[in-house]
Amino acid sequence: MAKKADASEAPPTLKEQMEALAQIVEKLEDPDVALEESLALYEQGMALVATAGKVLEAAEQRVAMVTGDGEVQAIDP
To answer: pLDDT by residue (tens digit) across 3-12?
Structure first.
């Protein structure tokens, strides 16, 4: 029987996802990593990229709602 996800478990933050992605990239740069492991790491990395992209898109939509005009404005440093 499959377990249900615990409601108290929060999804990883964007920062955590980016750190995990950096670790994956570091491992992929190791020439001693086997092909199968490299493929698995690549798949994990792509999943993280997709998830992080959704988080960023949601943040962009929130910014657009706050600006009121529906367009994301560039922020000048």
So the answer is: 555 556 788 8
